[in-house]
Amino acid sequence: MTSSTFEGARLVLRKELRCSLREPAAWGAMFMFALTTLACVSLSLSGMTLEPKLLAALLWVILFFASMAGADRGFGDEDLARTLPALQLYGAAQAVLFGKMLYTGVLLLGLAAFTVPLYLIFMDVTLTSPGIFLLTLLAGLWGVAVAGTLLGALATGARVRSGLCTVLMLPIILPVFLPAIALTAAAFGGGAVAVSYLGGMVLYDLVLSVGASILFDYLWYED
Fold first, then answer.
1. Distance, CA of 159 to CA of 157 (rounded, Å)
2. Which domain holds residue 201?
3. What pTM was estimated for this model as a whole?
4. From residue 108, how far is each of 27, 31, 84, 98, 188 by CA, in Å?
């Protein structure tokens, strides 16, 4: 990333953060979805002892669907506000992509910081490997941020944008979620799992980021 691209991405990130503070719809939708889903799961399974793998799967399902309430909104909100043509005119493709991606990452980190502690408390989960769990969480959110940003750009203008992004996101993010569930289960005391799973997640995230960067140039300048 060149210095001009980095500076452009920083400006896009700052713009997104300012807009989100004025209209915190994405934050509110994500947090309320996560909270209500977590409350329903906790009340439904009250008193039951679940296997670590099932606990891990439930956590990632909650994070995934909660993230879909806000991870794909970056370009959709620009389209609704009629500011997308101005952004296309004055914003370099890579700066816009990475700025939006960083903003989505900030959203997801906030979601995880809100959801994960509540999940551990409500579901009475004990972390046996907090370091592995934290790295797994970061790698998983990285993949969601990249895929959500790119699919949000592809689905701009679609009438069923949110549902479309969710359907398209799932097959793309499965190579991240499956090892993430296995590693999270191990961090919840479900036995040992090869740390190479984490390396595979990071490698896939890198490939996904490079692919998004290449595809976005064609998408951004197509019009």
1. 6
2. 3-220
3. 0.84
4. 9, 10, 23, 15, 21
